[in-house]
Amino acid sequence: MPFLPGHASVNPKLHRVKLGYWFVRGVGQIPRLLLAYHGVDFDNVAYSDRDKWFNDDKKNIGFSFPNLPYLIDGDYKLTESTAIQRYIINRFGKGELLGKTAQDNARVESFLSIFTEISSAIKGLFWNKDWENAKGAVLEKYQGKLADLEKFVGGKEWALGYLTLIDFVVAEDSHYIQRIFPEQYKTWTFLHSIRERFNALPAISGYYKQENSVKGPFFPPYAAVSVEQ
């Protein structure tokens, strides 16, 4: 199982982990869901006041690379969303989410490299006031890769046949893909089948039932496009 040296002595039972991000789902949602899946009791620090972050916490908390999202685990402070995702997985004991073997670990990274390239391009449209005219070029560029991912997953319950980080990312980012490409979304069956199974996981459904869980919005109100929940 992957291991991060130097941090195993931090006992999560002696403190509450803090996760800081804007008041939206955004790239903070997957770390939140990973913490929930691992059964970690955490404080969600949601910034709606830009001054609170930029003029106060960003300068004073003591990050090596100040940014949002951030994670504070005792004395350990970490930023950057992908680093936080992998830290949570390694730190709290479900390393199989990164793959049970070296080969599967590589498959996870390969799939995510392709998928996040696609989803990042699609998310960029949410800030484009001319998104309806711009989305055709994005579809033309990436529909072949989405077809490859569809073929890779095939009829498996999860992308690799068992739950991995891939499924967290696919389930979350499928919302953005569906909003921009609703008709094509129906043909990419791995997106909605994985999302449905993922949301039915007891830890995930339990998280969303909590009063203080982050359900939305996906983007701040000044985005050009909104995502319906």
How does this model look, in words?
With 229 residues, the chain is of the alpha+beta class. The protein folds into 2 domains: 12-95, Up-down Bundle (Glutathione S-transferase Yfyf (Class Pi), Chain A, domain 2), CATH 1.20.1050; 99-200, Glutathione S-transferase Yfyf (Class Pi), Chain A, domain 2 (Up-down Bundle). 51% of the residues lie in helices and 9% in strands. The chain has 9 helices and 4 strands; from the N terminus they run βαβαββααααααα. It has helices at 29-37, 50-60, 81-91, 102-124, 131-153, 165-180, 182-185, 189-200, 202-209; strands spanning 17-22, 42-47, 70-73, 76-79. Strands 2-1-3-4 form a 4-stranded mixed beta sheet. Helix 1 (29-37) packs parallel to helix 3, helix 4 runs antiparallel to helix 5 (131-153) and helix 6 packs across helix 8. The longest helix is centred in the middle third of the chain and has 23 residues, at 102-124. The relative contact order is 0.14. Residues 1-10 have low confidence and may be disordered.
Question: Mind sketching the topology for me?
Answer:
Layout (H helix, E strand, L loop, with lengths): L16 E6 L6 H9 L4 E6 L2 H11 L9 E4 L2 E4 L1 H11 L10 H23 L6 H23 L11 H16 L1 H4 L3 H12 L1 H8 L20
Parallel strand pairs: 1-2
Antiparallel strand pairs: 1-3, 3-4
Helix pairs in contact: 1-3, 4-5, 4-6, 6-8
- List the uncertain runs: 1-10
Helix percent reads 40-55%
Range of strand content? 5-15%
Just give the CATH class of the largest domain.
Answer: Mainly Alpha
Largest sheet: 4 strands, mixed
First-to-last CA distance: 36 Å
Structural class: alpha+beta
Q: SSE order, as H and E?
A: EHEHEEHHHHHHH
- By CATH, the architecture of the largest domain is named Up-down Bundle
Number of domains: 2
Cα-based radius of gyration, to the nearest Å: 18 Å
The name CATH uses for the topology of the largest domain is Glutathione S-transferase Yfyf (Class Pi), Chain A, domain 2
The number of helical segments is 9
Average of per-residue pLDDT values: 92
Strand adjacency order, main sheet = 2-1-3-4
Give the CA-based shape.
globular
The number of distinct β-strands equals: 4
